[in-house]
Fold this sequence. Notes:
Structural class: alpha/beta
Strand order of the largest sheet: 10-20-11-19-12-18-17-14-13
Radius of gyration: 24 Å
Strand content: 15-25%
Shape: globular
Helix content: 25-40%
Bound molecules: zinc ion
Mean pLDDT: 93
Amino acid sequence: MSEQPRPIRIGVGGISLESNDFVPFAAELADFTEAGFLAEGETIFSLAGSEVEIAGALERLQQESQLEAVPLLAARGVSSGRLSQAAYARLRSGLLDALRRSPPLDGVYLFLHGSMEAIGEDDPEGDLTWAVRELVGADVPVVISCDLHANVTRRMVEATDAILGYEHYPHDDTRETGMRAAELLLGIVRREVAPAMVQGKLSLLLTAFHSTTLRETPFAQLMAQAKKLERDPQVLSASLFLVGSYLDAPDLGCSALVVTDGDLERARQEASRLALDFWRRRFEFEVETVSVREAVHRGQQVDGGPVLLLDTADTTGGGAAGDSIGLVRGLLEAGVTEPSLAMVVDPEAAAACHRAGLGAELELNVGHKRDPRWGEPLRLQARVEQLSNGRFRYRGGILGGIEVTMGASAVLAVGAIRLLVMSVPTYDWGDDQHRALGLDPATAKFVGVKNMMTFRFGYGDVMKAFFVLDLPGPPPPDMRQLPFQRLRRPVFPLDYELEDPGLELSTSARFQPHERVQERSR
Ligand SMILES: [Zn+2]
């Protein structure tokens, strides 16, 4: 009597959050449930059709007839501080309990950010992947995908069979990354491939400013080198991780990671080579910054506008509070008379404007209340020119078409400056926030922008020039501005003259060359 073979079962889930250690607030569950997602059990299938990694993984898995995807827990939060202990415990146990309840699995796919931190746990992704490994045992393959900005740790490498990173920055390949991870996992489950993974980690921190993969940047060239390796059928995956992440963790660093089919020595060679090429180009990632006064002076030589003044250190997408008023202070000190736009998150000031009413003249303190570490509030004499409930719909970007709110909002007239005061930080993609309150950046001479990458899309058609400001903040344009305390030294660029790349290799503890039992079929 022959038994019906049971279907292949793949557990799918993940927890993704980018932490910033230099903000005074923690990430809570609401940062997932309100501005991201938290799905458990069968509701994970409702993410299919979206652009997130797990949707890509599900799409690939569902192409197989004899396969059952077993949903675990899937959560993504908006960039913030460390995850609170309670929130981490809740998400961690949600995922692990689902794994305990699941029928025997043949493989597990997890999407992680790679730069999450929790209060009391510097490496929650390492902790989580080991906990998964302990539950499923040594014989069940575990493949994870990470953001391109992941701080991939030794624990993560040792606990898993393969790690894949996004290939694009800005990230528009999350879904494809999930598909690639599922493809590789299926190959391992079917024993068509035997992954040998090595990570080469560097004493290197970079900021994300010069790392778009859409133009010929140093990072785009390095990524192309990695992807060229993948054309060799023996190289299953090659990833580069640019740690533009603001974590005060001992082992923070950029890395290269290569997974070959059964050839550990080759993985070691290629990961080392890629990592050292990365190291050699470190000076090309440096960002030229200028003071607000200098940016105004240089901007005044530019014909027309808008000239973008980039306060990248207050990028809400990098976890910042969005409440820096340094740019406005600088514009006033520089005595600008040209029409200029700026923005700040300050719920108290926004409430004061709503109380005073349209057209009212008032004196108020603005800025640096949510995060007082990077500057002082600014005393302003201003007129309330617009009031709004702050609702708007993104016209483009990763949130294109989605309606969100910046809470009670107002436009304050301060001389030639129009200051948009918001209650809630929102992702700054283009000029949607300004336009929601009737402001047109295209007609302004100077426009203050709080992001380090997406302005190239949001303002690409209209901007005449841009300058990166030397203002302080938790995601600064130069890592040397951060008050690291626990970071292991030496590290570039904090130790600027460092010549030793500090290359450290980590290998998956799972590597077992004899596992490969049949010739690869593709
Ligand atoms: Zn990223």
